[in-house]
Amino acid sequence: MSGFAPVFREAGLLKRDRAFIGWVVLTLLLSVVSVVGGIAEVSKQRETIARLIEGDREDRLEARAKQGDWGGAAYYSFHLTYDPPSNFAFAALGTRDQEPWKHRIRMLALEGQIYERDAGNPVLALTGRFDFAFFAAFVLPLVLIAVLHDLQASERGAGRHELLIATSGISSSPWRLRAWLKAGAVFIAAALPLLVGCIVSGTSMTRSLMAPAILCGYLAFWSFVSYRIARRERNPSVILATLLGVWVMVGVVGPAAGKLVIDHQVPVPQGADILMTQREAVNDAWDLPKEVTMDAFVARHPEWSQYAAVDRPFEWKWYYAFQQVGDQKAEPLSLAYRESRLHRDRLAGWFAWLTPPALLQRSLQRIADTDLRAHMEYEANVRLFHGQLREFYYGKLFPDAPFDTDALGGLPEFDPGMAAP
Amino acid sequence: MSHVLLLAKEEWRFWLRSNLALSAAILFLVLLVTTAILTTVRIAEERHAREHHQEKAESTFLAQPDRHPHRMVHYGHYVFRTPSPLAAFDPGLDSVTGQSMFLEGHQQNSATFAVSGASADLGEFAWLTPAVVYQLFAPLLIILLGHGAVVRERESSTLATMLAQGISGVTVLYGKALALFAAILLMLVPLLVSGGAAVGRGETVLAAILMVAVYFLYLSIWGLLALFLSVLSARRATALATLTALWLALTLLLPSLAVSNAARFLPIAGQIETGLVMLSDLRKLGDGHNVNDPAFDRLRRDLLKQYGVETVEELPVNLRGVVAEYSESRLTDKLNEYADRRMAMEQKQAALLARHGWLSPLLATADASRAIAATDLNNHQRFLKEAEALRFDFVQGLNRLHASKLAYIDDIKRSSDQQAEKRTRVSGENWKLLKDFRFKPDDVGTRAGNAWPSVLALLVWFAVLSIASVRAAGRIRL
Questions:
Q1: How far is A172 from chain B (nearest CA, A)?
Q2: Which of A312, A417, B242, B257 has the most neighbouring CB atoms within 10 Å?
Q3: Looking at chain B from residue 281 to 340, which residues have their Cβ under 8 Å from any Cβ of chain A?
Q4: CB–CB of B180/B146 below 8 Å?
Q5: Does residue A157 carry a pLDDT above 70?
Q6: Interior angle at CA A79, CA A76 and CA A80, nearest 5
Q7: Interface test with B, best of A126, A243, A259 (most B CBs within 10 A)
Q8: Which of chain B's residues have a Cβ under 8 Å away from the Cβ of A357?
Q9: DSSP secondary structure string, B173-216?
């Protein structure tokens, strides 16, 4: 026998292995469930955003209708910011369950607004959804372990071991071929629904190809580990227990330890300190001489220096200037908060190479733009947009331009892709 | 009886000789103890930091200088949710919910800064807590210990010998069950220690006992499952493979599938979305900053009539303060109406998820465990409600100051007249109206009540599996 004959022979044998077929069907089913669930969730999020955009606009017009000056218009107009799900988000929902992906902000100090969490039900976020990334990272290895651990042992038990070796026709071993065939079938059952999901969601070609490629590498890792351990041991129970031990180690213990060390090594400023700093700065300004605020403001915005004089106890431009100065005071803390989060994330990215399940999940979330980096890009977008709002209103408040509802049409509009790297 | 004891002793001897069982048990214990220590330290630090921030927030509020009371309404206040003593065992929602909240006039903010958002992301299971170790990994150890119980005797033909000696299948099962339940009790020792430590930190003994009971039930369910399949299987490998598949289905698949289900069939509109509808309603209530808003015409007429005066300047109270108090109260009713509706939806969704506990004991256990640890949705929502009550209380206190201590005539001129502005400041002594905020967990009776539906599911699982195992064992024949 030569060429593909052994492959066909093995495939023929596998077709009659009912337990194996059961696992493959289960894999296919779970993959379909995860993909369908992901697509439903993403389309729900898209609909929510569409409704919010509409409602946000109406609300702003309604709120603004009663206002007669720039300051009031800015105070009462909220603006929606949002992070639309990418066309691969269905496969890895990532941080979208835990972190807010929509805000309504206004021209007050941003540090007081950006940490608001319009996130979903925490009970659901805690357990985590069944998305493709979870399925692939944690469930698929167990499926592989289940179908590969008793590769030889079951044949030994059935007394066919020696017979198979003698008649397989390949000198090395029929086990390797059988292992690869089994793993290949599991891969196809898992990847097929994902590819269909990509087509349905209009995912770009690169993303649609990258994801299965990464998955393939991941499953190759687990197949290799399972195969090696299965070859070394005779007792299938010991093999299974050992493989479960490996799963627990790289899927749970390793990541938990890594997280612990990283969180310990890279301290993150307390959120409460950012908020308090900002609030104290904003509120102290009411009692400070107005020049103190205006000087700090002009240092950042020299273009308004000629309009910086404040004569009355209350003027809108002064009010917004101290909001801005409040942000400026909290800026070092806020920057440190953002940078240390990203730093933790970078370290986690390196560490994940030691823990393949975390690596796979992170990679899929990266492709799907649902990881921390994507969340921080959204936050950067919000900051950018808030800056544009300020620029617009400063241009009206400082030169004391007459209020004109039509000019509000020139307000900046939020564009989710505006700070794209 | 002596047979049962003998069989149990024999089972233990077998485990102690088995490298696999021993190494798995040691691994489990090390994992559990390390996690317990680390979680305790982390929660203690969190608790300390939040209590510290709470005290700081209160003292800075009290230390504010003389100023216009409405300034204090906007100055606002911060509250922090301190974790319950049993949070060191099961932090529950603590890491995925915001832990601090800014309270100010005219709006309800959300709880900000969840620990999860700032932490290194290494997958779902990187948040290892003692509770999760019990929920996810204790079953694996039990499977490893229990799967061979009866089937091993069958494979080695010793079962036939026993039956021939007149030891019934049920006796064999009892012996094996005794051994396994002894192992389960041993596995619960770290939880007992955690519970004891929580009692030391102010938890009631009853809560600690309930916690141990829930996990005893949960682990027993797994023990019974292992025994049941061990009785049914013809081969050890089959028993182990089937149990592993069950573990995969019940602890990994079903819980996350249940989450997807709950999200899909009981969707909840976000705070912003309900907020949009609400804002439109709110505008009809009028802007409390503007006494000339037509929404307050009637209030003004009534006031003038009540005091028998012609103009608002003649009123013995400051109309601005009265309007502020009136509109804050109406606004708060509206805000609470929407908040209550949202919370009720969240409760419904959480209940739907917990009902999946009839399918997956892990979900029932996780739900009961959070309820008893006071780290569940009920407690988080109570935090939000208590924070709101505090907000309303101090804002209205300030508004009453605004109405009674300030002259209307000064109040309307304070934006343009420096002297009038000075006269509208009230003494900082008044800020003492702010109440202390210390978030306390529900009392243990309430918590037990919250946990009950899930405990019931566990009891039914336990009963059904007990009956099934005994019946299956009764059918063992030569």
A1: 27
A2: B257
A3: 283, 287
A4: yes
A5: no
A6: 145
A7: A126
A8: 123
A9: HHHHHHHHHHHHHHHTHHHHHHHHHHHHTT--HHHHHHHHHHHH
Tokens of B81: 């949710």
A258 to B255: CB separation less than 8 angstroms, yes or no:
no
Is residue B100 within a helix (H) or strand (E), and if so which, with residue range?
strand B100-104
**Helix or strand (DSSP H, E) at B246:** helix B236-247
> Which residues have a Cβ under 8 Å from the Cβ of B15 and sit 6 or more positions away?
B21, B22, B25, B145, B179, B183
- The DSSP symbol for B147 reads T
**Backbone φ and ψ of A105, nearest 5°:** -120, 160
Whether residue A362 and residue B121 make contact (CB cut-off 8 A), yes or no, is yes
Interhelix angle for A356-368 vs A254-265, to 10°?
70
Tokens 């949710």 locate to: B81
For residues B406 and B318, the answer to whether their CB atoms sit within 8 Å is: yes
Of B98, B245, B366, the CB nearest to A117: B98
Q: Is B245 touching A (CB cutoff 8 A)?
A: yes
CB-based contact (8 Å) between B26 and chain A? no
The span from the CA of B449 to the CA of A298, in Å, is 59
Q: Which of A41, A115, A352 sits opposite B112 (nearest CB)?
A: A115
B104: phi then psi, degrees, rounded to nearest 5? -150, 175
Determine, for residues B259 and A248 on separate chains, whether the beta-carbon distance falls below 8 Å.
no
pLDDT band with cut points at 50, 70 and 90 for residue A15: confident
Average pLDDT over all residues of chain A: 88
